[in-house]
Amino acid sequence: MKTLALTPSRRWALPALNGRQRLGAALLALLLAFAWLVPWLFDADPARQQLTRILQLPSLAEPLGTDHLGRSLLARLASAVQLSFGMALLSVASAAVPGVILGVIAGWRGGWFDRVLGSLADACLALPGLLLVLLLVAIAPGNFWALYVGISLVLWIEYFRVVRARTRILIASPQLEASRLLGFGPFYLFRRHLWPELAPQVLTLAAFGAASAILAMAALGFVSVGLRPPTAELGLMMIELLPYYHEAPWAMAQPILVLFVLVLSLNLLAGRDPR
């Protein structure tokens, strides 16, 4: 009887998507296509004011209308999606890489290294995540990088705790012990035994983390402690358009709808069918 060995490419392959995840991926792809194609197809500056065209209804010239300063909502929404997704991607990558590496090392080695990192993670959890972000933003108001650092510091803890707990279980498995007795090194053991089991959980955390980063950024913008005008950011757009919801409810609804679809797509992408 022939036995099928996993090729290296299949060991590193991403898990297959289910129906909900495909829907989330499709919604996210549509939003990203909108965000990156609009600047190419429409010559509109998201910060340019046209005070003679305030709160105009959607038209051929302005497909989504204009805001209270005559700025193109189409251009501003596209710029806001780029900014939100860029922040989420950067924060998740910066949190996932150290979180996974430290989680694997702590779960594998144990001892004082595990205790120190575990205590550090517990100390970070004792401080509400949004409060930590607010403290950093207060030091550098309106600064993109302060917001990015704050969100990344909040997100890494989940990767560390989940990966550490899972690694502790996996290193005691008979398969890994057999490979270790055969003389295979740590990198092979990680690639062959740990990563295939960790990847689905890490990717799920990444999708949820991206959604959390986008919501945190929008929440800070909505209470006017995040990025500053004239930056096109979803939460900031909501608070700017809020005084005009009677005159232009369609304008107020646009950043809300975009934020809803963006977060929904990531949550659907994170969802997995129970095994």
Biggest β-sheet strands, sense, barrel: none
**Beta-strand content estimate:** under 5%
CATH C-level category: Mainly Alpha
What is the CATH superfamily?
Answer: MetI-like
Extended strand count: 0
Name the shape in a single word: elongated
Secondary structure category: mainly alpha
The parts where pLDDT drops under 50 for at least 5 residues are 1-10
Instruction: Name the helix and strand elements from N-terminus to C-terminus, one letter apiece.
Output: HHHHHHHHHH
Helix fraction bin: over 70%
Radius of gyration: 23 Å
CATH structural fold name: MetI-like fold
- Number of alpha- plus pi-helical segments: 10
Membrane topology: Multi-pass membrane protein
Pfam family, one: BPD_transp_1
Family: Belongs to the binding-protein-dependent transport system permease family.
Transmembrane segments: 83-108, 120-139, 145-163, 202-228, 248-270
Describe the protein.
With 275 residues, the chain is an all-alpha fold. The protein has one domain (18-38, 71-270): MetI-like (MetI-like fold, Orthogonal Bundle), CATH 1.10.3720.10. The chain contains 10 helices and no strands. The chain has helices at residues 8-11, 19-41, 73-109, 111-126, 129-139, 144-170, 174-181, 186-222, 234-241, 249-270. Residues 1-10 have low confidence and may be disordered. It is a multi-pass membrane protein. It comes from Billgrantia sulfidoxydans. Belongs to the binding-protein-dependent transport system permease family.
